[in-house]
Structures are given as structure tokens and as C-alpha cells.
């Protein structure tokens, strides 16, 4: 088995900082959309307007929550960079493959452990009406 070359911490730290900036801007934008979707004070609205605004607000808040979770993962990765443990799987300690880090710089898991975690989770099914 060949050992992966050392992780270029500066490269990945820069990637993570850029992603953090992008996520923070996205969250701020979505929060503005949520406020706008709620509608203005004094507008004449009917129940259909209210339902449409409510659905729009719900979708925007869901998107914002996804971005916030990713931001949390990016922040965790930046803490691992500072601690000197970035690039190592938080489960098994092995070095994470460079291609995986390029694809998902904030990942805390090697591919094998990510697959084990995915298999251990119960299948979530969504139903569309």
C-alpha cells in the first residue's frame, strides 16, 4: 500500500476560507429573501398570497439551514487545520485521500468510514404528494 503525500494545508485552508465566505454570503442572502417573502406591512393580501409567502419562506429557511450545517462543517475543518489534524479521518485516523479532500475539503471522514456511517443510518424515504 502506498502512502498518500502530505496534505497541502495552505491550499486547503484557503479553499475552506473561501467556502466559509461563500456560505456566509449565501445565508445572509437567504435571510433577506425570507424577510421579503414574509411580505410587507400594510399590504392587502388574500389567503392564497399568505400561503404562497409561507411556502416561499419555508423553502428559503430550509435552504438556509442546509448552508448553515455546511458552514458548521467548514468551521470544524478549519479548527482541524489549526490543530494540525486536518486531512486525517476523525474516526480511524488514516489520511483522507487527496481527491476526496479536493471534492469535499470539509470532510472529516475517509471514504471507507463515510460509507460505513451511511450504511449504519436507517434509510430515510420521502414521499411526494
Task: Give a short overview.
This protein has 129 residues and is mainly alpha-helical. The protein has helices at residues 9-37, 47-83, 98-103, 111-120. It has a single domain (9-120), classed as DksA, coiled-coil domain (Four Helix Bundle (Hemerythrin (Met), subunit A)), CATH 1.20.120.910.
Plain-language structure description:
It is flat and about 60 Å long. The protein is mainly α. Helix 1 runs antiparallel to helix 2. It has a single domain, classed as DksA, coiled-coil domain (Four Helix Bundle (Hemerythrin (Met), subunit A)), CATH 1.20.120.910. The chain is 64% helix and 0% strand. The longest helix is centred in the middle third of the chain and has 37 residues, at 47-83.
Helix and strand sequence: HHHH
Number of domains: 1
Give the N-terminus to C-terminus distance in angstroms.
50 Å
The CATH architecture designation is Up-down Bundle
- The radius of gyration over CA amounts to 20 Å
Q: What do we call the CATH topology?
A: Four Helix Bundle (Hemerythrin (Met), subunit A)
Number of helices: 4
Poorly predicted runs: none
Q: Please tally the β strands and state the result.
A: 0
What's the name of the CATH homologous superfamily?
DksA, coiled-coil domain
